[in-house]
């Protein structure tokens, strides 16, 4: 048994990287993995995917031999694991080694099944960091460029918005993704030039910090246009808002326009400076609820008297006291949705933190 295992233990020749395509954390993680591959002289290939694309992503893995398979910024629950496991276990039996670095919530069963793979799989999951930070700490602990990429990912993943280049990169990823989806182009291929530039030179590879813009003129133009249009849409969404006071707490409901993310709209509506309608200033809401066109609800608070997770529970959801998500369901009449939500929130006021009031 021991001799057989040691015979199988060939040196890894290549690295296959799978990361999340949707945001800067996934992209930055992929760039750090790419730097690692280069530092170890491993032939590198990349696949960016989103939840729902696991079947295709993991099918590729089943044929691999003697490959280091590094998966970043993708969470696993049991059903997803059941899809991925046959391929992963086949790969592991062919001399591949699995390294999984993530910060989402994993079920104990998913953790157990991943760790049961052959060839010493590595699994690091820590919700206190973003995936790029974990990737950097595990793979490139002393690399300054990787540290910088992790810092940028942290700024966007925790929605701090303190680094201009980080926010711009978030928008660039959205622009590139939306355009690829629109033209039915491959998302990995569309994002790869950005990941490669980040892997080579860090944020300076794509961003001219002196001029505060992307080096790629076309990308800069597209991002600027996207930001302008988004601002218009968010201002228009604010016009259609519904306000209602429940036990002294101002609840505001706003419909999310298409092409605008919940985070973007939530951040916009949390800043007092943005809340002006026809020359009239509005206060920041104590509880802000955003409604997507598919009927998904986002909860955010402007006051610590409010518990977003308790409010979300009334709508089949959950989350943190400061931010949560729920579901209303498909609808056609936004005003009726508002009345309905206000009524539900008035009937059960557990979401108002009594200790604080
Ligand atoms: Mn992430």
Molecular structure report:
This protein has helices at 2-8, 24-39, 54-61, 78-93, 108-115, 131-139, 144-157, 164-182, 187-201, 217-239, 262-270, 308-313, 334-347; strands at 14-20, 43-49, 67-72, 97-102, 122-125, 207-208, 213-214, 242-246, 249-255, 276-277, 280-281, 287-291, 296-301, 318-319, 323-327. It is of the alpha/beta class and 357 residues long. It has 2 domains: 2-206, inorganic pyrophosphatase (n-terminal core) (Alpha-Beta Complex); 239-347, Diaminopimelate Epimerase, Chain A, domain 1 (Roll), CATH 3.10.310.30. The strands form 4 sheets. The protein has a 6-stranded mixed β-sheet with strand order 8-9-12-13-15-14, with helices on both faces. A 5-stranded parallel β-sheet has the order 2-1-3-4-5, with helices on both faces. A hairpin with a 4-residue loop joins strand 6 and strand 7. The longest helix has 23 residues, at 217-239. Manganese (II) ion binds at residues 25, 73, 103, 130-131, 157.
List keywords for this structure.
357 residues; 46% helix; inorganic pyrophosphatase (n-terminal core); 19% strand; alpha/beta; binds manganese (II) ion; 13 helices
């Amino acid at each position: 048994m021991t001799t057989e295992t040691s015979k199988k233990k060939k040196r890894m020749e290549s690295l296959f990287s799978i990361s999340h395509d949707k945001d800067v954390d996934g992209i930055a993680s992929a760039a750090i993995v790419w730097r690692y591959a280069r530092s170890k002289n491993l032939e590198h290939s990349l696949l960016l995917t989103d939840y729902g694309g696991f079947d295709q992503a993991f099918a590729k893995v089943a044929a691999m031999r003697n490959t280091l398979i590094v998966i970043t910024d993708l969470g696993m629950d049991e059903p997803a694991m059941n899809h991925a496991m046959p391929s992963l276990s086949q790969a592991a039996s062919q001399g591949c080694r699995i390294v999984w670095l993530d910060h989402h919530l994993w079920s104990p069963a998913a953790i157990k099944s991943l760790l049961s793979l052959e060839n010493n799989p590595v699994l690091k999951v820590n919700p206190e960091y973003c995936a790029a930070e974990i990737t950097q700490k595990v793979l490139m602990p002393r690399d300054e460029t990787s540290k910088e990429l992790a810092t940028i990912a942290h700024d966007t993943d925790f929605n701090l918005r303190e680094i201009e280049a980080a926010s711009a990169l978030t928008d660039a990823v959205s622009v590139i993704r939306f355009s690829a989806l629109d033209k039915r182009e491959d998302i990995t291929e569309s994002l790869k030039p950005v990941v490669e530039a980040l892997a080579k030179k860090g944020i300076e590879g794509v961003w001219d910090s002196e001029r505060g813009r992307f080096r790629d003129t076309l990308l800069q133009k597209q991002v600027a246009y996207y930001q302008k249009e988004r601002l218009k849409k968010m201002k228009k969404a604010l016009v259609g808002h519904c306000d209602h006071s429940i036990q002294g707490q101002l609840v505001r409901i706003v419909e999310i326009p298409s092409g605008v993310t919940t985070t973007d709209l939530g951040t916009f509506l949390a800043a007092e400076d943005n809340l002006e309608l026809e020359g009239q200033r509005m206060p920041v809401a104590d509880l802000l609820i955003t409604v997507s066109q598919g009927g998904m609800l986002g909860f955010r608070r402007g006051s610590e008297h409010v518990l977003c997770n308790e409010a979300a529970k009334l709508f089949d959801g959950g989350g943190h006291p400061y931010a949560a998500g729920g579901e209303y369901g498909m609808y056609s009449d936004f005003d009726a949705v508002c009345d309905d939500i206000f009524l539900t929130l008035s009937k059960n006021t557990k979401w108002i933190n009594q200790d604080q009031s």
